[in-house]
Amino acid sequence: MEAVRQVDSAPMFSIGELAREFDITTRTIRYYEDQGLLAPIREGRRRLYRRRDRARLKLILRGKRLGFTLGEIRETFVLYDQAHGESRQLQYYLGVLDEKREQLQQQRRDIDDALAELEQSYARCQELLSRQNTDGAG
């Protein structure tokens, strides 16, 4: 991806570039901005996004795919931003990350269980169909 321009030697991206890269609408990106999840630099009506915004957009989209709410994603960003340097905040943030990890691991177990049940049902249906075809042929 080609950055729009450089500000203080850091690459900047347009809203259109990010929308194309992540296959989302510019309206979606503006919504995340309205929710306080992204903070582009403004040049008149033009928005320029830093690498940090690009990384956050990637995390937002991943979080949404995993079932996190925008509020949970925002909380994670806030905690991460506040945690730098202060031991108590880092400990709290680690606790939040542990909870999120456990939630995802539980979702993985649930998905594995659902897939196993689906496979059993599939096999049972194939077996019944095979019997019907065999019984009907005779």
Structure characteristics:
single chain, alpha+beta, Multidrug-efflux Transporter Regulator, Chain: A, Domain 2, 2 domains, four-stranded antiparallel sheet
Helix-strand category:
alpha+beta
Name the CATH class of the largest domain.
Mainly Alpha
Helix segment count?
5
* CATH topology title of the largest domain: Multidrug-efflux Transporter Regulator, Chain: A, Domain 2
First-to-last CA distance: 64 Å
| pLDDT averaged over residues | 87
Total of domains: 2
Task: Summarize the SSE layout with pairings.
Layout (H helix, E strand, L loop, with lengths): L4 E3 L2 E5 H8 L3 H9 L6 E3 L2 E4 L1 H15 L4 H14 L3 H51 L1
Antiparallel strand pairs: 1-2, 2-4, 3-4
Helix pairs in contact: 1-2, 4-5
Structure description:
- This protein has helices at 15-22, 26-34, 51-65, 70-83, 87-137, and strands at residues 5-7, 10-14, 41-43, 46-49.
- By secondary structure, it is of the alpha+beta class.
- It folds into 2 domains: 1-66, Multidrug-efflux Transporter Regulator, Chain: A, Domain 2, CATH 1.10.1660; 84-138.
- Strands 1-2-4-3 form a 4-stranded antiparallel sheet.
- The radius of gyration is 23 Å and the shape is elongated.
- The termini are far apart.
- The mean pLDDT is 87.
